[in-house]
Design a protein that fits this description.
The protein starts with 8 loop residues before the first helix and ends with a helix. Helix 4 links the parallel strand 2 and strand 3. Helix content is 38%, strand content 17%. It has 268 residues and is α/β, with parallel strands linked by helices. The radius of gyration is 28 Å and the shape is elongated. The chain is built from 9 helices and 9 strands. The chain folds into 2 domains: 148 residues, no CATH class; 86 residues, no CATH class.
Length: 268
């Protein structure tokens, strides 16, 4: 994150982000432009696996481009990410014109009815430049003896490149944990979710928009505001939070019937 960047509530609150995301335009696989390092990982694998030259690779797919009118040099190999919605038509065109290809394809529907096609089922999860996450495999005509195969080393190469991108994209934003003397609506809601009662008395609280320490550090205030609590109210809040945390842990981990039977025997 660049210095001075203002974080929105969606950056730090998963529920709100999910709510906002519902109204964003849906991303389709035809809008998936490949991160450069992912493409490089794929191209390097193709070069090694098939003993071909990177100098022969061509990329005819870009916004507004026409792959049928693209000038394909003799001996070229198309290594690119085409629109998935017309993938069968693209592979058929290349098959008819004798153009070698190694193309990105949707992992769940890469068994295309095209003569001479082999599905390379790497099934690697790729986060594309538009943010869409697509489980991706490949199709090629460079393995005429096979109709389908696995590709563990290709998966590893793509997975490594994709993880590198995710680390760069991830904002290093920690969730705010306020002192026990501060209570927020989010924290009270969390307690309700875990069946824990807490009542904030009017005469033992004061409405606040931020903490002095936050303002001094140049950070935004408390989203939705909060309440500063008295010593007694803060102690009640601490006890309620411990109880909620214990319930949350119990909900995550439940004993099986066998384990409950063992507990009963131990009690005897």
């Amino acid at each position: 994150m660049m210095p001075g960047t203002q974080l929105t509530f969606a950056d730090v609150n998963d529920d709100y982000k999910a709510f906002v995301d519902k109204f964003k335009p849906k991303k389709t696989t035809d809008d998936c432009y490949t991160p450069e390092n992912v493409y490089e990982a794929v191209a390097a694998w193709v070069e090694r696996e098939y003993g071909v030259s990177r100098a022969d690779f061509v990329r005819p797919f870009w916004p507004g481009g026409d792959y049928e009118r693209f000038e394909y040099p003799d001996g070229c190999i198309v290594v690119d990410n085409p629109p998935f919605s017309i993938l069968t038509a693209i592979c058929t065109f290349y098959s008819i014109h004798g153009i070698r290809y190694f193309l990105f394809a949707p992992a769940m529907s890469c068994f295309l009815r095209v003569d001479g096609l082999c599905a390379v089922c790497a099934s690697a999860s790729i986060t594309y430049e538009n943010g869409a996450v697509v489980r991706t495999s490949f199709v090629t005509d460079m393995e005429p003896e096979y109709v389908a195969r696995t590709a563990p080393s290709l998966f590893d190469a793509i997975d490594s490149a994709n993880e590198e991108n995710l680390k760069k994209q991830k904002k290093q934003v920690g969730k705010y944990e306020f002192p026990m003397h501060v209570i927020t609506a989010a924290k009270l809601g969390w307690m309700s979710n875990h069946h824990t009662d807490l009542f904030i008395r009017r005469d033992e609280s004061a409405r606040i928009a931020s903490l002095d320490a936050m303002d001094a550090a140049g950070k935004s205030g408390i989203f939705g505001g909060g309440y500063l609590l008295s010593e007694r109210a803060a102690a009640e809040r601490a006890a309620a939070e411990r109880a909620a945390a214990e319930r949350a842990a119990a909900e995550r981990w439940k004993l099986s019937e066998r384990e409950l039977g063992m507990v009963e025997l131990l009690g005897r």
